[in-house]
Specification:
Oligomer: single chain
Largest sheet: 4 strands, parallel
Number of strands: 7
Radius of gyration: 19 Å
CATH superfamily of the largest domain: HUPs
Low-confidence stretches: 261-270
CATH architecture of the largest domain: 3-Layer(aba) Sandwich
Shape: globular
Mean pLDDT: 92
Strand order of the largest sheet: 3-2-1-4
Strand content: 5-15%
């Protein structure tokens, strides 16, 4: 049985559902497969807050239309939660508690049986306190249940012809703040301005990590080579400084780098 068939077999046991739909490749694959299996008994729901990066909602709307699934937008208020604002290592737990409470309410109002997430099997090997919040509320993870990791998820996305099959991951803006740095709206907006400016310059795989006046810009291999050229580096630094940072450093991109407790990545340039 192929990966898509495995996923659809899991979803065949779901009576009806709300899909937590960020518009990333994982949740898009769950939504697309659920639409194939459940038809009108599933709705994709995108949560909007100050931690959502610019352009992500528009992307989610377009993807839902492409998939052919009903799409709903809701507001979440994780910034009202002290545990979230404090930004300890359990920040994502508080975020997901807020999200799943809101999605549970949507499911209850609409008479839908369960909430589905886009977590995949590879996520189980990383620091994911949000999974504890999911377990507490009975959220199901179809990709995990089917034993599918990121590579298989992207393969399914290509098989289904999803336009975001190669899209880099885009976690919430709060993930750019080191643990212990309070999560505040002005800080999130500053990070968002910097990342949006870099995307306009054509950079794709990136994070702007916020260290007060210092922006630690992480770039994927292709983008990193471009940024090491004098002309590209100058444009990058100007764009980030225009967002309010006094100092810019460029480093190789590592997903979840702020979760690591070891030595920092080597800095490329200053």
């Amino acid at each position: 049985m192929g990966a898509l068939a495995e996923l659809e077999a899991v979803l065949a046991g779901v009576p009806s559902a709300v899909v937590a739909f960020s518009g990333g490749v994982d949740s898009s694959v769950v939504a697309a497969a659920a639409a194939r299996v459940l038809g009108e008994r599933v709705v994709a729901v995108t949560a909007v807050s100050a931690a959502l990066a610019s352009g992500e909602l528009e992307g989610a709307r377009a993807l839902a239309s492409e998939i052919g699934i009903e799409h709903q937008v809701v507001a979440t208020h994780e910034l009202r939660r002290e545990g979230y604002r404090r930004n300890g290592r359990d920040r994502c737990y508080h975020c997901k508690v807020e999200l799943y409470e809101v999605l549970d309410a949507v499911a209850e109002r609409r008479g839908l049986a369960t909430v589905l997430s886009g977590a995949n099997a590879d996520d189980l090997g990383d620091w994911r306190p949000g999974l504890r919040a999911a377990a507490e509320r009975g959220v199901r993870h179809p990709l995990v249940e089917a034993g599918l990791g990121k590579a298989e998820v992207r393969a399914i996305a290509r098989e289904l012809g999803l336009p975001n099959a190669a899209k880099p991951a885009s976690p919430c803006l709060s993930s750019r703040l080191p643990y212990g740095t309070p999560v505040e709206v002005p800080t999130l907006r500053q990070v968002d301005r910097a990342e949006t400016a870099l995307k306009r310059l054509g950079y794709r795989e990136l994070r702007v990590r916020h260290f007060g006046p210092l922006a630690r810009v992480e770039l994927g291999p292709d983008d990193l080579r471009r940024a090491t050229r004098v002309e590209g580096r100058r444009a990058l630094e100007d764009a980030v400084r225009a967002s309010g940072y006094a100092e810019v450093r460029v480093e190789p991109f590592v997903s979840g780098s702020l979760n690591r407790l070891g030595r920092p990545l080597p800095i490329v340039g200053t």
